[in-house]
Structure prediction request, 273 residues.
Amino acid sequence: MLEGTYMSGHSKWATTKHRKAAQDAKRSALFSKLSRNITVAAKEGGDPNPDNNASLAAAIEKAKGYSLPKDKIKVAIDKAFGSGKDSANYETVVYEGYGPAGVAVLCEALTDNRNRTAADVRSAFTHAGGSLGTSGSVAFQFERKGQIMIPKEIEGEGKKAGMEPNGAAADEDEFMMAVVEAGGDDYEDAEDEWIVYTSPTELMAVKKAIEEQGIQVKGAEMTMEPTTPTEVSVADAKKVMRLIDKLEELEDLQNVYHTMDITDEIAAALDEE
Prediction:
């Protein structure tokens, strides 16, 4: 069921997250993480062809959503099988804890050294006035969702062509109908793109159904949504974001999720940081 305002708080987070990803310093670290994710997925799936390796296909779709160049995607896949293959054995580890103002934080890591990563994550929580918890201490406050990123405008064909509407994505009413027809659960406005939410099992099916309606998709990924967002003051929101920023700087962490409710007021304050 589509509820246009249901995820408005998350919309601000998605917008902030994507804007931050566009900054050069953040982009470099993000590309490194996306590449590691692709290499591990290719290696674990045992096949460099995403058509035969579902994990690799998902890793590539996520990377596309954050504009990882095609050549870097190829290099990441080659790293798993080629002469310069990555011999490190990465494992997925989840860290849970509480940040300032009781905001729950969940971190997904891809690490070749659990002790190093745990120490780095614990240090970040401690310095921010938070605390690292035990397994299961905050996970129940999140639910997994599929997330599809769709640009409102796309590059036209031809050398002199500029930006042009991305089919139904250029008009909200038409786009809402397209999402309903494709089987999406919800959608939200993240400035120059739409974000469509799906159940975890329907992510790729909904993506395909949207594309079949003539709408170009930028990328798709699995994400975690807070079931009950935590209300905080602007001052506390800044403290929480400093923790999130510090965690996102850690090379071993692939994803950092939190329950903070980002209101319009908080979003504006964070933009000024």
Q: What stands out?
A: The radius of gyration is 19 Å. Confidence is low (pLDDT under 50) at residues 3-13.
